[in-house]
Amino acid sequence: MAKIDAFFKLMHDQGASDLHLNAGQPPALRIDGQIERVKYKILDNNTLKGMLYEIAPEGKIKHFEETGDVDFGYEIPGLARYRANFFQQKNGVGAVFREIPSTIQTAEQLGLPAVVSRLASLPRGLVLVTGPTGSGKSTTLAAILDVANRTRRDHIITIEDPIEFVHESRSCLVNHREVGFHTKSFTAALRGALREDPDIILVGELRDLETISLAIEAASTGHLVLATLHTSSAPKTVDRLIEVFPANEQAQIRSTLADGIRAVISQTLFKRRDQRGRCAGLEIMIATPAVRNLIREGKSHQIPSAIQVGQKYGMQLMDDSIMDLYNKGWISAEDAYAKAYDKGKFRALIAGVPLDFTDA
User: 65 and 127: one domain?
Assistant: First the structure.
């Protein structure tokens, strides 16, 4: 048992999502979205480095010492998996660990709308789960993939950095590939995947032009591609996918994306006020013919209107989802206002100046 494992057990027992270890400071946990200090001595650089290096693969240590940053996965059997990031900072080394539950929660357990589960049955196309860091994108993707794994008889390939949720092969054949261990890059793995007879490809993150291009190509050539992106809404997701390409290629990519995209789920997490834990606000865009035409014609700013009139297809706007959470008594008025797109709809709910006074 590694010395650092005691912190992971504490993290798990406290229900924390993240563990922060930094030279020159005591440990800290993120619980329900807020940082809380652990009653423990200040960690000196040499002690912390020894703890971190004990669990890091040799190749990752070399990479960290050369670059000052590294990501990898760590697992404690019977407890959980952890996404680790080491970094250099002013007082020495630092590390952040995100807990990845060993049990994959179903869409029903997560409270996801039925249309989200139905995405797992799509024969082809691009499905994106978007949102800021720590908004639960990987958890939602895992739930969708779990539905496919239990109900389809296909080949699933996941490409991640690092591997997060581990899916045991059920009705599907599942192969996990980790960037840095099993493949050089997302791009190389995606290129290879197209020759590996996949039906479903999960891409941990669309980071650059080449990866985005290959993902759109795969979605347009008969594969179901699931991926994440750091965007906050469906229109911004479409714009991000287009704008990464050179101007002279954007018209063609609009057409290709319009044909290939199937859904965008944008989400953000809120601290529950009625009980311990967090809940997700969701914007759901389904690529109906009307939505595809807007993408093809470069009218992404009209997508919210298409979502609003497309509720019968399972679509919903983020603000409507947030208002629903507020009306249920699950979230505070201040949190609802802070994360709403149209602040005017929520301004009457709060008293005084909002926390982000620039929105006032």
Answer: no
Of 101, 135, 151, the last residue of a domain is 101
Per-residue pLDDT of the chain in tens (360 residues, 90 and over written 9): 899 999 999 999 999 999 999 999 999 999 998 999 999 999 999 999 999 999 999 999 999 999 999 999 999 998 999 999 999 999 999 999 999 988 899 999 999 999 999 999 999 999 999 999 889 999 999 999 999 999 999 999 999 999 999 999 999 999 999 998 899 999 999 999 999 999 999 999 998 999 999 999 999 999 999 999 999 999 999 999 999 999 999 999 999 999 999 999 999 999 999 998 899 999 999 999 999 999 999 999 999 999 999 999 999 999 999 999 999 999 999 999 999 999 989 988 887 766 666 665
Spatial distance between the Cα atoms of 230 and 205, rounded to a whole number of angstroms? 8
249-286 b/e (C-beta count within 10 Å ≥ 16 → b): ebeebbebbbbbbbbbbbbbbbbbeeeeebbbbbbbbb
The residue segments making up the domain with residue 117 are 107-316
* Judgement on whether residues 217 and 134 belong to the same structural domain of the protein: yes
Neighbours of 289 (CB within 10 A): 8
Q: Is residue 322 part of a domain?
A: no
Q: Considering the domain boundaries, does residue 355 fall inside one? A: no
Model pTM? 0.91
Helix (H) or strand (E) run with residue 25 in it: none
The structural domain count of the chain equals 2
The enclosing domain of 175 has a CATH number of: 3.40.50.300
The two counts, helices (H) then strands (E), for the chain are 14, 13
Residue pointed to by tokens 């050369």: 66
> Is 196 part of any domain?
yes
Examine the domain organization and report whether 198 and 120 are in the same domain.
Answer: yes
